[in-house]
Design goal:
Length: 250
C-alpha cells in the first residue's frame, strides 16, 4: 500500500490506483487502501467512484474520521454541500481537533452562501493550526464575498507570509485589489502568479481586467487572448470572449 501513496504525491494517479487494486486483491479488508484509492480517484475528478471507495472504507472502519473528511470533500466537489457538511460533522464528532475538517466544512458553508458560518469554521481551523495558509486564503475569500476587502487582503497577506509560492492567494489578493481599484497592485500580484505558473488562465483573465480598467487596451487584449488559448473551463472561455468583443476584437 505504501508504493501507491508515493505515486499520489507525483500525481501519477493511474499507477497509484493499479497499486491499490493489487493491495485490495491481496487483502480485501484494507480500509486504508480503499480510502487512498478514493483520494486518487478524486484527484482525477472521478468523485462518484471515489465515494464508493470511501463508503467501503467506512464499512470496514466506521470510526475513520479521515474517510468521512475525504467523502465530504468529494460530495462538496460534486456540489452536494449538505451531504458534505454531514460528513464533516461526523468527522469532527470522531476527531474534534481536526483543523482540515473545519477548513473543508468552511468551504462547504461558503459554497452554500453561508459566509458567516464559513468564517466561524475557518476561525476554528486557525485556532487549532495557526500556520494554516489554506484557511487564511479561504477566510479571505469569505470576507471578500461579504465585500470586506481590507479584511480579505489581511488574510491573503498572512497566507502568503506562510507560503510565498501560494499562487491561489496571489490571485485572490489580486482580485481584491482590482475590486478596490488598486490596479497596479493587482497587476503585480497576477505577475507573481504567472512567474509561479505561466499557464494559469485565470491569472491572465484578472490581469486583463486590471489593464482594461487602467485603459491599457492592447495589454488587456493580449491577456484575454492568452486566457482564451489556455483556459480549460467554458465559463472562463465565455468571459474572455465577452471581454474581447467589448474591446472591439472580432
Amino acid at each position: 500500500n505504501n508504493r501507491g501513496a508515493a505515486y499520489g504525491t507525483k500525481g501519477e494517479n493511474d499507477q497509484e490506483i493499479a497499486d491499490y487494486n493489487q493491495a485490495l486483491k491481496l487483502n480485501p479488508n484494507l480500509a486504508l487502501a480503499y480510502n487512498n484509492r478514493g483520494v486518487a480517484y478524486s484527484a482525477k475528478g472521478k468523485y462518484d467512484r471515489a465515494i464508493l471507495d470511501y463508503n467501503q472504507a467506512l464499512k470496514l472502519n466506521p470510526s475513520d474520521a479521515l474517510a468521512y473528511n475525504n467523502r465530504g470533500a468529494a460530495y462538496n466537489n460534486k456540489g452536494e454541500n449538505d451531504r458534505a457538511i454531514l460528513d464533516y460533522k461526523q468527522a469532527l464528532k470522531l476527531h474534534p481537533n481536526y483543523a482540515a475538517v473545519y477548513n473543508n466544512r468552511g468551504n462547504a458553508y461558503g459554497d452554500k452562501g453561508d459566509k458567516d458560518q464559513a468564517i466561524l469554521d475557518y476561525n476554528q481551523a486557525l485556532k487549532l493550526h495557526p500556520n494554516y495558509a489554506d484557511a487564511y486564503n479561504n477566510r479571505g475569500n469569505a470576507y471578500g464575498d461579504k465585500g470586506e476587502y481590507d479584511r480579505a487582503i489581511t488574510d491573503y497577506n498572512q497566507a502568503l507570509k506562510l507560503d510565498p509560492n501560494y499562487a491561489q492567494a496571489y490571485i485572490s489578493r489580486g482580485n481584491a485589489y482590482g475590486v478596490k481599484g488598486e490596479y497596479d497592485r493587482a497587476i503585480a500580484d497576477y505577475n507573481q502568479v504567472l512567474k509561479l505558473n505561466p499557464n494559469l488562465a485565470k491569472a491572465y483573465a484578472g490581469r486583463g481586467l486590471a489593464y482594461r480598467a487602467k485603459g491599457d487596451k492592447q495589454k488587456a487584449i493580449a491577456d484575454f487572448r492568452t486566457c482564451l488559448k489556455l483556459t480549460p473551463t467554458p465559463q472562463l472561455k465565455q468571459f474572455a470572449q465577452k471581454q474581447l468583443a467589448e474591446l472591439g476584437v472580432k
